[in-house]
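hiii, so i know i said id send this last week but things got crazy w the move. better late than never?? heres the sequnce for the chain we talked about at the cafe, plus the structure i predicted for it. fair warning i was half asleep when i ran it
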Amino acid sequence: MNKHTLRKIYKEKRASLSEALRDLQSLDIANQSLTLPIWNKRLYHIFFSIENQNEVNTQYLLNILFGKDKNIATSKTIFEENRLKHFLLTDQTLIKINSQGIPEPDGGIPIEPQLIDVIFVPLLAYDIQGNRIGYGKGFYDRFFLECRFDVLKIGLSFFPPEKEISDISQNDIPLDYCITPQTIFKF
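okay and structure toks below
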């Protein structure tokens, strides 16, 4: 299927999950992450869930990162430039909801993308080759290009992969892993 069709299908699939089930499965996803060979890295990038998009709740994963005393970065969306700007997440970081409903830092200590070792990636759908579909603006694909070639890109999804996304372009950068409530897919 193509990206447009899959976006529609997966937005509906996520919306059909109850809040309680999304929360339980988000906890399962966080627990699955503990089996990945990533916990010796230095800097982890995480997104804050967009509530009205029924995304995986990353608070559980964030608690694991804090519990392991990891350095954590998160992003602010710069819509005028079609890019993300990254900041260190600290106890003093103020998180605000922007005009698009995205929780993001209100300033802080800037972080260069080349310093990031692991990126937890939001997505709507993905396929068995690790190709992902986001919301269609390319923010994360541009972000990946700013990072080191060995940065680990880990998707978070309530659902298993599709067989194929038919209209992948050369600008689409695949994931290394995707964590679901039941298992982890490696690409």
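btw The mean pLDDT is 96. thought thatd interest u
miss u guys!!
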